[in-house]
Write a structure and sequence with these properties.
Length: 99
């Protein structure tokens, strides 16, 4: 199942970072409640799996789920062909759509 954010289709949702590839891309953290998805965070990473599987990140996500009483899932868009600056620019363009 794909998730469209702005003009880009993301893969997911994923509840476990082990299902992700260790490739560069953009990720969206989504709050899932009663079948609805809401964007919580949008960022880029050199390795999506490694970024979303760090102890600091997962502890922050556990805290969010406990306080918001909703599930968090990730959606990813792999961009192995883009540089870090190009990923950042793509992220900024996507974020502008939510302002």
């Amino acid at each position: 199942m794909g998730i469209v954010i702005g003009p880009i289709e993301f893969e997911g949702p994923y509840a476990d970072a082990n299902n992700l590839k260790a490739e560069p891309g953009i990720y969206a953290i989504l709050s899932e409640s009663k079948g609805e998805l809401e964007l919580v965070e949008l960022d880029e990473a050199h390795s999506l799996r490694n970024c979303l599987d760090t102890e600091e990140y997962t502890s922050n996500m556990r805290f969010w789920m406990e306080t918001s009483q909703s599930n968090l899932v990730a959606a990813v868009h792999y961009t192995p062909e883009l540089s870090r600056d190009e990923r950042r620019n793509m992220k900024m363009r996507l974020m502008q759509e939510f302002e």
